[in-house]
Design brief:
Elements lengths: L3 H21 L2 H8 L8 E5 L2 H13 L5 H13 L21 E6 L5 E7 L5 H11 L4 E3 H10 L10 H11 L16 E6 L5 E7 L20 E4 L3 E7 L1 H6 L2 H10 L4 H15 L9 E7 L4 E7 L3 E6 L3 E5 L1 E4 L2
Parallel strand pairs: 3-4, 10-13
Antiparallel strand pairs: 1-5, 1-11, 2-3, 2-6, 5-6, 7-8, 8-9, 9-10, 11-12
The chain binds N-hydroxy-L-asparagine (SD4).
Amino acid sequence: MKTRRDFIKVSAIGSAAILSSSAFGSDQQTEKNKSKKTVNKPIVLSTWNHGLEANKGAWKILETGGSALDAVEQGVRVTESDFTNLSVGLGGLPDRDGNTTLDACIMDHRNRCGSVGFLQNIENPISVARKVMEDTPHIMLVGDGAYEFAISKGFPRNEFKSEKAQEAWQEWLKTSEYKPIINRENHDTIGMIALDNNGNLSGACTTSGLSYKMRGRLGDSPIIGAGLFVDNEVGAACATGLGEAVIRIAGSAIIVEMMRCGMSPQEVCKAAVERLIVKHENKVENLQVGFIALNKFGEWGCYSVYSGFNVAHRDINTEKLVDAEYNRPW
Ligand code: SD4
């Protein structure tokens, strides 16, 4: 584990890097990156063990030379359409009023992005987010507006309610104690980032959000820069875990900025977790967050506050689930 001194060192490098990059532009660093090594592509990374199945969906597109954008959309749709999943899609655990509400966002190599929040009764929010990106002048649509937009684009209304999720909610109602202790079980939000054969990056993130959340609550997952960020010059990042904590540090955006300055994906995921811990004044009991990052060379990394986070990785040579390094054990 890092000492405080090490941490300060990394933070200092990180902040200097961010300053230099955001204040003076990225050209110098991009030039430096260009002179580097060969590229491992295509490659796809997803959060949690449901990422293995999702990666298979993405891989069908990547292996035939398809775009990272199509791959991440099709990949996470696999998880959304798995109604046994209690944390993504219509099978997800509901809010405290018993309604499952969905958040998703997508971003591509041209800095285009789209997002939906507080969406109900639609099976594949990620595809609605893509339509927001492609067919509207906006980036985010939420609630009834997002739903009406989806219907207008031909997405069917789906009234599915998971018995398992409803039972869990009934159980929760007995105490109605709101404790956002998440990610102890091995399933959660799916975030996916990919690099295609043309060297382009895209990402997608989709979730039913925190179980038993307040009505109307949005987490990080539909927020570009928090749950997901992609910069095709540099890399992509995605977050899972307590969304409020990710939003506070603009998690995915800072990860990409640190990569812009030459830090490796593994270093930046670790630095972002360390920043998050410090910004929460070290009070992170039960606060789990995990990050994944991928750079333009197909190098990747992952790191979480607590143990238990894992990442599905697929490239030409490998298809596996990897346990992320972490700051502390549960
Ligand atoms: C949220 N970040 O709504 C999501 C939940 C999640 O792992 O990712 N859990 O806050």
